[in-house]
Each structure stands twice: as structure tokens, then as C-alpha cells.
Amino acid sequence: MDLVAVSRRFDLTPIWDAYTGEKLKATCQVTVWDNPRRDGLTTLRRTLSMAYSVKLPVRHTLIIGGQVWIVSAYSNPDTWEKDVSRKGYVAQLAELGKVARTSQLLDGSGEHVYMSRVWVKDVKDITTSSEFQSQYYIYFTKGEHFEEGEFAFIKDRWHIIRNIYTSTAGFYIAECNELEPECLFSLSVDIGDYDPVSETTTKNIRQIPVIKLDWRDDYTNSLPSAEPQQVGDIRFRTSQEYAEYLEKAVEVDFEGAKWKPVRVEHKNHGAISVVIRKV
User: Fold this and answer.
1) Chain-centre distance of CA 134, in angstroms?
2) Cys bridge to 140: 97, 144, 171, 174, which one at CB 3.0-4.6 A?
3) Ramachandran quadrant class, 174 (left: phi over 0; alpha: psi -120 to 50; beta: rest)
4) CA distance to 24, 211, 220, per residue, from 239 (Å)
């Protein structure tokens, strides 16, 4: 009796590549995740079982039963004595989102990627407000390209990626902070034009597109001698091409109030983090 052939007899569930739409020759079995918290608070997980010879698409994202599932990088072998006849994967329900660098978020571009969001906790900064900020784990597969400091869009909200980990099943996990629903703004920045003859400065206004962040989102430790973060400060992300304007800015107009930049920090991929303080 060929155990491999027998096990394949029950592989009746067809699968498709979620990115190309191509129906794969392989079939599988789908079972409930064997865990008392299998459906967790905000996600669905299942176990996929298939023949050992099956090779999944590079991006490990499948359509099964009309739903999209991201599939773990590592499989668990199913053995009979010395023979390996089958393998099992962890699958997590996913939806189409977007990943973008700072410049891409500002210009509306980015790459569409299937991902899965899991709620972790809510945090609150009682020194500035009584509002909560949600923190999430966003799961994605080995075939995708996420980096710290980039942004992920899912569930109609943008998130900033703080750290990236690898799960025991082989998923990649982006530790993210959720941004406000309205996080894109335009700053009116007066860089001032100085006339040495009359010794006067005239206004020179530049409009700079920015991403409004919470202070935790881009926080970096500094020496005690450095100017500390103060209550009421606001932090933004923008493209590095605007660094010169913000570093020499005389005044910033935001939401009807006057501000001044107190810190400009250079980040990866041509981005800068800017802290403004009310005048």
C-alpha cells in the first residue's frame, strides 16, 4: 500500500495563487487550528495539509474557498516510520493592503501586499491627551519586503513599522503603531528671505506635505544635554528633499497656530522626522 497515494486521495480542496490568480495543480486539506484560541481576538488561523512534493508559490499567498490566506514559511512533516508522506502549514486569513516608504505614502503610491493584522494592546500618554493609540502585529510572508520605518495600510488605517520579527512558523511580523485616520497634512513653512541691504526679512512660504505621527512613533533616545521632548510638541515624517526648508524655517503654520521646528532627524530611505513646538 502506497501511503502517499492514499493520503492524496483526501486532498480535495483546490488552491489558487492569490497574486496571479493561477489555479495550482496541487490540492490540500484544511482543518481548524488546533488551539483553544485558534481564532484569537482579531484573526483566523487554519492548518493546511498537503502532499510532501507540493511546492507553494514564492509569495506563499493562496486563495482557498474564496478567501485569501498567507502561509507560513516552515512546514511540519507527517511521517510514517522513515518516510515523509505529507507536510502541514499554518495559514492566516489575510487581506490586500499596501506597504509604502515615506515618499510613496505622500505621493499616493506604494506596493499592494496581502497581510494580516492582529491587535496587541492600546497605550495612552497621559501627559498629552487621554486618547488611546492601538498597537498591532502585521503578519506577512517571506516573499514580501517590509522594513522598519516604512508604513503599512490595512483596515483603512496607516501604521508605522517599528520593529520586524520572525515567528516560529516562519511568518514575518511587523510591530506597528496605528496612525490617526487623518494623518496627511500640509505645513506652511516660512523660510524667510533676508535682504542684507535693508536688513529686513520677507516671508517666503513653502507648502510641505507631511505625515503626522504620535511622539512614540519616531522617538529616539538622546543625551541628557539635548533638548528634551516637551508636552505639546508634534512630530511629523516627510521626505528628505524638504530638510533644508525645515532646518532654516523661521515659522511654521499648522492648524491655525504658529510653531517652530526644534529637531530634524534623518531616517532611512530618504525620510526625515521633524519635531515642531508651539511658539
Assistant:
1) 13
2) 144
3) beta
4) 42, 10, 19
- 223 burial level (CB within 10 Å; 0-12, 13-18, 19+): exposed
Question: How remote is the C-alpha of 165 from its chain's centroid?
Answer: 12
Q: What is the pLDDT of residues 210-257, one digit of tens each?
A: 999 986 677 665 544 555 567 778 999 999 999 999 988 888 999 889
Kindly report the backbone phi and psi dihedral angles of residue 217, in degrees, each rounded to the nearest multiple of 5, phi listed first: -65, -30
**CA dihedral sign, ordered 210, 211, 212, 218:** negative
Angstrom CA distances, 35 to 31, 109, 122, 137, 199, stand at 12, 39, 25, 19, 74
Q: What is d(CA 13, CA 36) in angstroms, rounded to the nearest whole number?
A: 25
d(CA 116, CA 92): 7
Nearest residue to 237 (alpha-carbon basis) of 278, 276, 191, 192: 276
Q: Which residue's C-alpha cell is 483546490?
A: 14
State residue 192's pLDDT score.
79
Distance CA 211, CA 109 (A): 14
Report the 10 Å Cβ neighbour count for 143.
17
CA 23 vs CA 9, 10, 34, 63, 222: distances in Å: 19, 18, 28, 9, 53
